[in-house]
Request: fold
Amino acid sequence: MSWKKRARDGAYHHGNLREALIQAARELIKEKGPAGFTFADAARSAGVSPAAPYRHFRDREALLADVAREGFVRFEAMLTTGWANGKPDALTAFNNVGRAYLAFARAEPAYYAAMFESGLPPDVNPELRAAGDRAFAVLRTAADGLVAMLPAGKRPPALMMSLHVWSLAHGIASLFGRGDAGRRSLPMSAEELLESAMLVYLQGLGFPARA
Amino acid sequence: MSWKKRARDGAYHHGNLREALIQAARELIKEKGPAGFTFADAARSAGVSPAAPYRHFRDREALLADVAREGFVRFEAMLTTGWANGKPDALTAFNNVGRAYLAFARAEPAYYAAMFESGLPPDVNPELRAAGDRAFAVLRTAADGLVAMLPAGKRPPALMMSLHVWSLAHGIASLFGRGDAGRRSLPMSAEELLESAMLVYLQGLGFPARA
DNA sequence: TGTACATCAGTGAACGCGCGTTCACTGATGTAC
DNA sequence: TGTACATCAGTGAACGCGCGTTCACTGATGTAC
Reply:
């Protein structure tokens, strides 16, 4: 008992409070939305005095930005796993990136909200901007691989494709595919919706229906 | 001078405060986001005591819901104008609904934010839900008209099409196409992005490239 | 048309509350010798 | 290895502030006769 307590106290005491505050913020965002938590709230959840967070974050926005940045890093990792180095083939890999996008939004609504719905300008700091760009780059890479499948004269611009799919996935995620409550309901799952849209879209670009 | 003042005071005095509060809320949402205004703020902007709003709205959420409801009504009107009864042809009309979607998001960022980004559950009240459904129905009707152009065996489900385009337009609007500050920048306009995506998508469904 | 009364929208003062932020502080950890 | 000192993360008390909400009230508008 007192062991456990000491371990916790000790853990908070050097190096971990920063991370503990981010965890607390995630929890609070999940419950009440990105606007629904306060600096004091986060401190309380982390079991620490209201002045303690100032040692690690300039203000509430800086904390929120760090949640978002960390979110983008994990997002990038999830998209990268979905892509799987273009295996087993470029078309499947591209579709898997789309699936990973939605899976992330569903599994991590708090990160997702901090990343896209917190009202933070994407360039509130360079790290946040860079993390967001790196996540987008995964989609871009998958599109490059896919475009290369087509004969040289019939290749659509990969950047445009990436933006189309990013927008589509984001639209579906934020309208229908959220892990938390209060979203619109649907006659099909968000995953099916994305899959069908991408099928039609890729057909429009001249890709075969099946890989 | 005292005329003008009296006219204003009189206007606030019976019947208009409700509307004045909605206007004030819109202004504040535009400046600071849907989470960035308070009940007291709205009262102050409307030039009225902090207790006055309670005569018209149960609480802040009720006011926000009314902004969103009114937004959906105007949104529906704008989409309907875009559709133009399916004139000059179903394909053009469908595309115009998409353009109208984006135009609304750009022209009315405050309404748009209240409608889609305020964290309000869509069924916080039946009127809000109904207004949202009516707006979606315009897109649905446009899709019905378009689907009817294809031979009977090759018709995609219009509901699915509507959901695809709604998601795409919403994704583009919320990532890139906002009238207010702080969004991501793009190598092309949001309008071009939507147009190109819809062109590819409709080609994928078997529609001719040009009407 | 005029008078008496009811209704109702907005007032303004008051309250308790939690937030953001500051401050001098404490006590544990790291470092020099 | 031990001692002295510096550093640094977190404390806890304090503050001013604006918010949400309530209350008895006022004065203008609407209505009955």
